[in-house]
Amino acid sequence: MENSTEQKKVVMTAAQPTGKLHLGNYLGAVKNWGEMIENYECYFGIVDMHAITVPYVPADLKRNVYDCAAQYMACGLNPEKCNLFLQSMVKGHADLSWILGCICPLGALERMTQYKDKAKKHKEALNSGLLYYPVLMASDILIYNADLVPVGEDQKQHIELTRDLAQKFNNTYSPTFKIPEPYIPKTGARIMSLQSPESKMSKSDTNQNGTLYITDEPNVLRKKIMSAVTDSDSCVRFDPSTKAGISNLMGIMAAFTKKTYAEIENEFAGKGYGDFKSAVADVVIEGLADVRAKYKEFSTDKSLIESALKKGSMAAQRRVNKMMSKVYRKVGFMNFE
Length: 337
Ligand code: TRP
Known about the structure:
Layout: H1 2-7, E1 10-15, H2 23-36, E2 41-46, H3 48-51, H4 58-74, E3 83-86, H5 93-101, H6 106-110, H7 113-121, H8 128-142, E4 148-150, H9 156-172, E5 181-183, H10 218-226, H11 244-257, H12 261-267, H13 273-287, H14 289-299, H15 302-331
Parallel strand pairs: 1-2, 2-3, 4-5
The protein binds tryptophan.
C-alpha cells in the first residue's frame, strides 16, 4: 500500500476561494481533478493567501473558504482520497516563495499578463503582493515537488515561470525540484456566458443570468438556460463563429453526455431551439443533481469541512516539511532539529 502510493505521480493544483463555483469552473477544472484522485497522489489547495492580493473583507474570505471546500467535496474531491488543504494553514509556502523571489528577475514578474491586467484594474491600491503572486504560485507547486499541474489556459504563463524558477534553483544550488508539467484538459468546450457567448462564463459577469452556478436550484438553471441568447437561424448546428450561443449550449450538453456535436445535431434536426434548450436544461439539472444534494449536506456541517481541511493540510504539511528541510540545507539556512 505505502509503496504503491509512493510511486504515484504527484498532482498539485489550486484555486482561489471565490465563493460560488460556476459551470465553467466545474467542467473545465474541478470535475477533472476529481477524475485524477484514483490514479495520482493529489494535493488540491484553496489559496487564501493569493486571495488577499486584492481588496477583500476578512469575514467574507473565511465564509468563502468553507463554501468552496463544501463545493469541492460535493464535486467529488473526497478528502479520504486526496489532500484538500488550505494554503495559509500549511507553513512553508510563504518561506519558499521568499527564497524563489530572490532568484526571480523583477522583469519576469512585470511581464506577466495577469499582473498587467490586474494592475490596471487596481491602479489606486497597487500592492506588491499582486506582483509577487506568481512567485507564491510557483512555491505552491514546487513545495510539493509536483509532476503535474492541472490548470486552465490562462495560467500557462505562470507555469512557465514556475518551470524557469525550478530550473534556476536547480542550477544555482543543486538538483532539487522536478520541472512540473502543466496539464491542460482537452475537454473540447470552453464554457461561455449564456447571455454574451463571446466571453467566458464568469462570476463577475454583470448579467448573472448568463452564469450557471453548480448550486443553483433546478428551476433557476432551467430559467437561465431557456433564456440563453441564440440566433435567428433556428438550426442546431455547431459553429462558434456565427452561432456562439447554440454552440456553447452544445458544448455544455456534450460535456455532460459525452455525445459528439454530430450526434447532437442529428438528434435535434428539424426541432426548434425551445426543444433543444429544454433538453440542455434536463441534462444540466440531472448532471448536477448529485453535486447539489451533496452540497446541501456538506454546507450545513462546518465540522465536517473543518476536519477535511485539517486532515488535508496536515498531510500537505508533512510533504512540505520534507521538501523545506532540503531547501533550507541547499540555500545555506540552518535547521535545528
Ligand atoms: N493562480 C491560479 C488561478 O488563478 C491559482 C493558483 C494558485 C494555482 N496557486 C496555484 C493553480 C498552484 C495551480 C497551482 O487559477
